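Consider the tokenized backbone below.
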């Protein structure tokens, strides 16, 4: 079943819409792989979406009111998935065991943080938000 574009922006029980969920996953990959692991101090796309309670940071996008199309968000998503996939394909056991440090302004900024934890965070975000998205899409597809 294909849902109308507007439905993908609907919130279920005051939680993120499907589009917002994808935007957040893009943010998580940028933060934990792009910034922490790959060292890009500003890996952000204007459509990235931090979590709601985040304190906000200069230079990190946070436009909760943006209403991008699914294709716009999926374009960023495919780029982020390629970035993560490329890292995973090239990662050695020795590299997986290292710790990374990002001390420049922005988020995340951590010292001696295990690289494998960065990946674990991204994988957990992907898994949990997939469950939320499927649950919400199921509800949006039901009549009434």
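A designed sequence for it:
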């Amino acid at each position: 079943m294909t849902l109308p574009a507007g439905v993908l922006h609907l919130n279920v029980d005051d939680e993120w819409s499907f589009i917002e969920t994808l935007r957040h996953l893009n943010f998580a990959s940028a933060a934990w792989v792009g910034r922490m692991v790959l060292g890009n101090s500003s890996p952000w796309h204007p459509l990235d979406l931090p979590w709601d309670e985040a304190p906000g940071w200069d230079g990190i996008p946070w436009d909760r009111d943006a209403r991008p199309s699914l294709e716009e968000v999926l374009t960023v998503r495919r780029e982020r998935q390629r970035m993560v996939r490329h890292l995973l394909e090239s990662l050695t056991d020795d590299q997986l065991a290292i710790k990374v440090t990002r001390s420049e302004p922005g988020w995340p900024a951590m010292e001696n943080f295990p690289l494998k934890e960065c990946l674990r965070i991204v994988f957990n975000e992907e898994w949990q938000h997939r469950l939320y998205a499927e649950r919400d899409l199921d509800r949006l597809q039901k009549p009434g």
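The chain has one domain: 5-40+69-141.
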